[in-house]
Amino acid sequence: MREPRSPRAEGAPMTPIVRAGHVWAVARIALGWVFLWAFLDKLLGLGFATPGERSWLNGGSPTTGFLKGAADGPLGGLYGALAGHWWVDVLFMAGLLGVGAALILGVGMRIAAGAGTVMLVMMWGAALPIATNPFLDDHLVYAIVLIGLAAGDAGDTWGLGRRWAEVTAGSPVLR
């Protein structure tokens, strides 16, 4: 069980650890918004990555375009076979919504980091070969940040992480 961190007393100086906690909180909320925005755009077809006529609500598949684009990569056969199946779409959209909401709220950080990392590594694999860098891209950087957010208890600052830890005490899976 983790040691509860006490909140900074009013008027106490901002220590480097407190400042770092604020930076991690901003990173957590920003990355949560990346996931949540992708969910909303694919669901509603807001015209950014997904045109309205290809939204999930209009019968479009949120996975087909990206996964079919992986056909030329080393994992193209695998991703092509997954593209457009209803269950893949449901899992993908649930992952975007769940990870995004968990990060923004600061709850379930370990679960969100695990699920988000799996999603991001799979998206990285679908993007191979990467045109701008032979190995590293934003998917892997985001996955590293997710792991850091969970390891650093980033949900405790400006989030519901402390309360979540109290409610889920004794459950290493839900933390």
Quick summary:
The protein has 175 residues and is mainly alpha-helical.
Total of domains: 1
Morphology: globular
Order of helices and strands: HHHHHHH
| Count of discrete alpha- or pi-helical segments spanning 4 or more residues | 7
Would you identify the regions where 5 or more consecutive residues have pLDDT less than 50? none
Q: How big a fraction of the residues is strand?
A: under 5%
Q: Would you tell me the structural class of the helices and strands? A: mainly alpha
Number of DSSP strands? 0
Distance between the termini: 10 Å
Give the assembly state of these chains. single chain
Q: Taking all residues together, what is the mean pLDDT?
A: 90
Verbal overview:
Keywords: Membrane, Transmembrane, Transmembrane helix. It comes from Herbidospora solisilvae. This is DoxX family membrane protein. It contains seven helices and no strands. The longest helix has 29 residues. Helix 5 packs antiparallel against helix 6. The termini are close together. It is an all-alpha fold. The protein has one domain.
